[in-house]
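Posting for a labmate who doesn't have an account.
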Amino acid sequence: MSIDIGIADEKRQAIAEGLSRLLADTYTLYLKTHNFHWNVTGPMFNTLHLMFETQYTELALAVDLVAERIRALGYPAPGSYAQYAKLTVIKEATGVPTAEDMIRELAKDQEAVVRTARSIFPLADEVADEPTADLLTQRMQVHEKTAWMLRSMIG
């Protein structure tokens, strides 16, 4: 069935492709944050263990919102590690970094997700795609605040 929501097919496709990158970044960051939650050690263990749990839980909910927006635009949402590896800018952690290095990596990754979200705005604005713009604004607010909180932990 064709989709007629007032956005041309090629524009919907471009937005869905941008959102697919955002989905890949979000899912990869979710996995990395969950990994750090499991493996953090040191004097900040309890604080970071709980903080990372809060963060990965939020990310788990976010992937659904992003994927559902892609589907609402009429395109399939990527859903495999192979697809995410091609689409994401987030680098996987190798080994087990120190707690402070975990914080640094996650802060940089949160900022990277903000940049991905921000890069989609011109596409959404061009066609008055307010639902996508609203989603992007919400995601940017969460990631900017989380990056600030992580940076604040190490000064």
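Reply:
Got it, the structure tokens are right above this. Helices lie at 9-39, 45-72, 81-87, 99-126, 130-153.
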